[in-house]
């Protein structure tokens, strides 16, 4: 009985929300494997980028961001879209999310207004998860964020493919047969077989299983083929 009373007393005396050090949550989030975290302001400055986000967006976990801006690392098409989002988040004080493929990796990023104690209120916190990271958490998907529709894509290694080849790869990777793919794209079976062979050669894939694995890991969809590449588009078929 004494132990129960002591436990009850501890619960009743605790502080909610807890009175933790100001860096406790920040350290926990920024150092969690698989979670990208950045702080960016309306002047395009990279104020903080954790190792995960540096790897996903800058190409190396060791990338030096000190004194750097987004345009030091990204094409104008990428920066212009993200700055449009940042301005909206800062102006409305409401979070916004974007589902995008960059450097060949599908990522879902959510931009949160940073609740500074004094002006200027010009910074956002960007939290990013990979396709595999967010698809395994239905609670994340249930939050009704306003979504920013991107017009651009960076397919990474898949940038060597034409738009038609990306369509073919996505359909085959989602389990459709060559004849089914041919019917959907209004092409002959022979043409789809030719595209499939070209895809395997360009990406050095060995068989259907590797093609499916590549599509699945990236979360590639047929509609992604219609997006404009951040860099010069691959040649049309």
Automatic annotation (TrEMBL):
GO terms for molecular function: DNA binding. InterPro entries: PAS, PAS-like_dom_sf, PAS_4, Sig_transdc_resp-reg_C-effctor, Tscrpt_reg_LuxR_C, WH-like_DNA-bd_sf. The keyword Transcription regulation applies. GO terms for biological process: regulation of DNA-templated transcription. Keywords: DNA-binding, Transcription, Transcription regulation. The keyword DNA-binding applies. Residues 154-219 form the HTH luxR-type domain. This is Oxygen regulatory protein NreC. It comes from Rubripirellula tenax. The gene is nreC_2.
